[in-house]
């Protein structure tokens, strides 16, 4: 009676029962085709499918070197042309020593299609890179020109103010170099001046102040005479004053 009570009180989740449970196999179950092929191959007289035989024959042939078989027609031809086993090909022995690997074609596209597609892709990539470079260079050049134009406009504005100061100090009250076209009527001479670029306007104003007042805009001073100007001023251009 006690034995029956003990068996009723046993824990069926204990390690005793868990260790006795057989572990399931982790091996991937085979498909019906694999099982059928295994069963057929175990029988005598079984003939493998043509595709499988071709694959095995091809892999076996590709795994062998041409110089492993002394009776190979290809090896005999190479020896007649001076080839020695283990040495590179070529008259000066600068060629390859290993045969070119064969890549099996698995798709239905033409033989040269993959190379053609690769060339097209490389050409398109090259064109995109070129366009990106041109766009980048164009942007950099545009920014550079904008910065130069901004600098010239600032110099022109300053030169016009200096010219006006020098003229008014000498009693000159009218000059196209500092005349504001918003405040004065435009004549032919003024119109021609306004049609010039900012750089051309600046050159004309600087030349005028240099010849009339011995004033160098880049030096920022007015010299007593022409001799002093030519002696002390480095030049007429901005780069001369670096």
UniProtKB/TrEMBL annotation:
A GO molecular function held by the record: nucleic acid binding
Protein known as: 21230_t:CDS:1
A Pfam family the protein falls into: G-patch
Start and end residues of each G-patch domain: 70-116
Positions of region (Disordered): 1-74
Basic and acidic residues bias (residue ranges): 49-68
Domain of life: Eukaryota
Gene Ontology CC: one annotated term: kinetochore
InterPro entries: DUF4187 (IPR025239), G_patch_dom (IPR000467), GPATCH11 (IPR039249)
Signal peptide residue numbers: none
């Amino acid at each position: 009676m006690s034995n029956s009570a003990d068996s009723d009180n046993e824990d069926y989740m204990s390690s005793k029962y868990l260790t006795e449970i057989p572990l399931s196999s982790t091996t991937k179950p085979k498909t019906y085709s694999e099982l059928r092929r295994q069963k057929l191959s175990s029988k005598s007289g079984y003939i493998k499918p043509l595709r499988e035989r071709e694959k095995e024959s091809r892999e076996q042939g590709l795994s062998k070197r041409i110089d492993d078989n002394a009776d190979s027609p290809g090896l005999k031809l190479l020896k007649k042309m001076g080839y020695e086993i283990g040495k590179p090909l070529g008259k000066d022995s600068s060629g390859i020593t290993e045969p070119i690997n064969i890549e099996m074609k698995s798709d239905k596209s033409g033989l040269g299609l993959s190379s053609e597609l690769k060339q097209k892709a490389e050409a398109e990539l090259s064109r995109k890179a070129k366009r990106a470079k041109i766009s980048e260079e164009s942007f950099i050049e545009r920014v550079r020109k904008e910065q130069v134009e901004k600098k010239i406009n600032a110099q022109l504005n300053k030169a016009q103010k200096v010219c006006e100061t020098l003229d008014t100090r000498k009693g000159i009250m009218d000059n196209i170099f500092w005349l504001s076209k918003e405040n004065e009527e435009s004549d032919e001479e003024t119109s021609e001046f306004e049609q010039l670029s900012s750089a051309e306007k600046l050159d004309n104003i600087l030349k005028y102040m240099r010849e009339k007042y011995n004033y160098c805009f880049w030096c920022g001073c007015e010299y007593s005479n022409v001799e002093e100007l030519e002696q002390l001023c480095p030049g007429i251009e901005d780069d001369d004053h670096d």
